[in-house]
Batch of 2 targets.
Target 1
Amino acid sequence: MIQVPQAASSTTGVKTSDSKSNTARILDVHDMTVAYHQRPVLWDVDFTLDEPRLVGIIGPNGAGKSTFIKAILGLVPLAGGSVKLFGTAPEAQRKRIGYVPQRESVDWDFPVSVLDVVLMGTYGRLGWFRRPRAADIAWARECLAQVGLADFAYRQIGQLSGGQQQRTFLARALAQKADIYFMDEPMAGVDAATERVVFALLKQLRAEGKTLLVVHHDLRTVAEYFEMVAMLNMRLTAAGPTAEVFTPDNLRKTYGGRLEVLDAAAEALRKKQRSD
Amino acid sequence: MLDLSYNTIVVLLGTSLLGAGAGLVGSFTVLRGRALIGDVLAHAALPGLCLAFLILGRRNLTSMLAGALVSGLIAVLLLTLLRSATRVKDDAVMGTIRSVFFGGGVVLISYIQNRSVEGSKAGLDSYILGKTAGMIAADVQLIGGVALAALVCIVLLYKEMQLASFDPGFARVQGWPALALDNLQMALAALVTVVGLPAVGAVLVAAMLILPGVTMRFWTDRLGKLLLGAALIGATIGGAGTLASAKFSLLPAGPVIILVGTFIFVLSMLFAPRRGVLARAAALRDFRRMLARQKLLAALYTFCEGPEGDDAWLTDEEIAATLEMSPRAARRVVYDALLSGALQPRESAKGTEYGLTEFGWEHAILIVRGERLWRLYLLEHPDLAGQLVDLDLTKVDEHLPADVVQDLEAKLRAENRLPETDASADAYAAAHRAAGGGP
């Protein structure tokens, strides 16, 4: 039997894990609530990770998957709860974080080359005022080669296909040399070749002992790609090893049935707020 | 001949430096899609300028520009507040704030000019459309200082500003103060706008920020070159506009500078390689011709697959009928194909007939293969439809993984619909021999 480390709990909050109690947790999300205009997007989410894992974050559209990542990274404010990365505030761990935002979040007509974008991954280590040196450029090229875009270094980013743009973002995250990676739908709308490159990279990074949290939309490939899943629909409906947690029952809780219940709950809350 | 008196040189230096600073700072404004904020700022600067004059009771450029900066920034702050507090659309908020502040400024100017002799001599109305003639060395120093500050900030913080402009979210995750960098860009834009008021005027100074950046974007895909080029273009239009305005002394400088800038912008928009309107039209035309040529070759190839065998020769009219084109369009395609060496003519009883050359035949095989592979691919992977399919039918292998192509080819081959290139036929035979099968 493989001993699966305590991964997450949606009901009882933080549990202590037997062997790891004295070393810092990789990720500790406690009672996270995020709201846009007083409307909850995430509600009392508890999620902990003690050991490096390749985690898929799944859930229906508008379930708060991206928000979950952005809240951990401090890109959206918490309405309640707390986040710790490697035992401290995420802000103190900037250099250990790699990030792949959604492809649609930037203007691809921006006048930069593919290599320029990948170099941005090294900026965190460079610090203020210092420009990338030859060694940084060589490293960025190496990262580009890893995603199969070595020949595209000097293209303007708008001339790439969607899949190639996605791979550029991945190369930039690789260039960060991080310990924990957050990826927002890296396989959304990409071609088969890119999906394979992405998956191979996820596995490789995992083999190097990195932790990866990946927002994923394609339920067909979840079992193949991820050793752990976190199922979100405003609340964390289930989290744990894929083999145990990725079940029809939990899927129904996340995607069907429960959805209406939570909508009703959100609606009730909105009405209450209005009357208050 | 131009009379380059001391005065002219001072003014020329002032407007060129202003143009360079505006080009540098404005490029970022344009890239962030914030060009209109510069316009709000400029219009809203007018009442602050007048109030500073009223409070001081005399004309003092530095204090008046400080007043202009304050009221401009108040307008931008108001804009941000209204945007987050109400559901009024952005453009409506901007339009309203700009008009209200500008209206207030114009009223104040009339009031000042009617109130006293000194007021009427102050010439505050020149701040609406700009007037370079009165520029003195101190003004140029001010403009130069602002331009230098912009240059120093952008050179030092090039990497940071590039990142924060392209992907603020990623910048924040890396720990950069994206908001502060944003505000720095805004502050620089505000400073350039305000020192540009006397020369170009409140109505047009925003165009000075916008024009160099959008013009230069036609010529380059690199941020560094964009910034450098925009600074040069800005300096050029500032200088050229001033000279033109000095030569015809009745013309206000602002409009002349903007017209010169617009002239360069229009030239770039039309004639820039790749991004220019003409280059795009030419590329579209070439693309359409390539599609038509592919269609012709594919049609001739398909014809050969039929009972007529290899001996397919068609006249202009028959080609037009097969391709469902007008005779004129068909003649055009045939002409293109003849030029590319894919088609050869022969004289027969029916008139001139056209058939594929050896080269045309090989090319047609690639095209038909590509077309059939794409069709099959779309049938088998409807969920990925459109993400990979390329209209240049000869490039299937660049877009699809090799194993997918092999799979599709096997299916076509089973239906005997795969046009075999010599290379792939050889590989096919070799594979069969290796597997111990027949030829």
Target 2
Amino acid sequence: MPVAHTVSAYDDELRWLVRRLSEMGGIGEGMVADSVQALVNADMALAQRVISEDLLLDVAEREIYDRAVLIIAKRQPMAQDLREIIGSIRIASDLERVGDLGKNIAKRVIAVHTMAQPKKLVRGLEHLAELALTQLKEVLDAFATRSPELATSIRERDEEIDAIYTSLFRELLTYMMEDPRNITACTHLLFCAKNIERIGDHATNIAETVYYVATGDQMSSDRPKDDDTANVIATSPGD
Amino acid sequence: MTELPLPVKAAKVNARNVQVYYGQNHAIKDVNIDIPSESVTAFIGPSGCGKSTFLRCLNRMNDTIVGCRVEGRIEIDGEDIYDRRVDPVQLRAKVGMVFQKPNPFPKSIYDNVAYGPKIHGLTRTKAELDEVVEQSLHKAALWNEVKDRLAAPGTGLSGGQQQRLCIARAIATSPEVLLMDEPCSALDPIATAQVEELISELRNQYTVIIVTHSMQQAARVSQRTAMFHMGIVVEEGPTDKMFTNPDDRRTQDYITGRFG
């Protein structure tokens, strides 16, 4: 916000939104990172902590909604200010969903560890999570600096996540085909992978919102899409 | 503005290189604007930016101010309104005006509305005049409230009713352009809503130009908005864009409450 408003309380209110959102971003990032760690290390205590942290994001999202509505009612914001407020509401929703997805991964930790997992699979999942977390971290930076350039590059990189997700999907299918006893754990891992891929999508949503807040224009709608899992079919190992 | 804007289709009013001086003070600088017919155009900008001065050029109200000089060309329907052959009184019948404070004549409600048609000789019989008064009060959404007391003084009405009476008076001469200089600034929210509703109705028939200090009002009632600052038009365009994503820094700062 380059120039201050004549009414300084208005600036305070807008700053509050930004601060609360970056807190939400921090919590969401932490939850995702911890849930994947819990999964990798079979750490039940950590998983439990992630599950309980989700409440913080739910509360923060509601607070942001309430304050945003109040600001709109009180200040009748225009132009950039209005976009900031509407953008905050949207980003809060995305971050709350990121928390839900992290929590869902944490909940699956017990089920996944009923069997020993192939190292390679877990490694693949970790890599996917790293990419998604980088996206999340950078999109929060893009929001903090209102950088449309950074937002654009983040959206373009979502392709990578989709490609890795598709290859994980294939691998998990293969393991299930090999031994039906893998099915329970692999299905849970599949959901975990899907959750992480969705986190990447939320980062993309946030990138689009940041771009709109900063420029007043929508990003062009043609974005790369490499999630090819809709076309993946199982073939038995003998084929 | 060095580049002239392209003429808008079906422009009712065209202003080219308009300058206004109050003595030494150069109040309006090189204003170029096209105002489309059958639409509402809002002029916004901080106090002293020249929006009311420019509005008053459009029916030559500035002629009455000593030391005021208008240069450039203002056309309505392609005719230069500052041409020597134009009678300002006739012009003002065609270009009506509503002011900030309701200013009914100290006469009856009926006579307030009948005044314009009478002096311009627009009606021949009493029945015709009655018809014009009733129609104008209908259009101003006031008829139902005053039909039983047309002989009562206009000054006895409430503020909102007085303003609608002034609008009825302005439209009684069948103007083509209606200038409104902060028509709601002295009204309560309900009367304001009634006048805004009326402006939306009037748009179907007239070219309405409104000066307002309320950003929300400009955003609500107008289709195009021009932002004035220090005597120049810094930006002009579709209202939807002006209030969501203006191009000019000064427009952005003004509408978001950062200066002015």
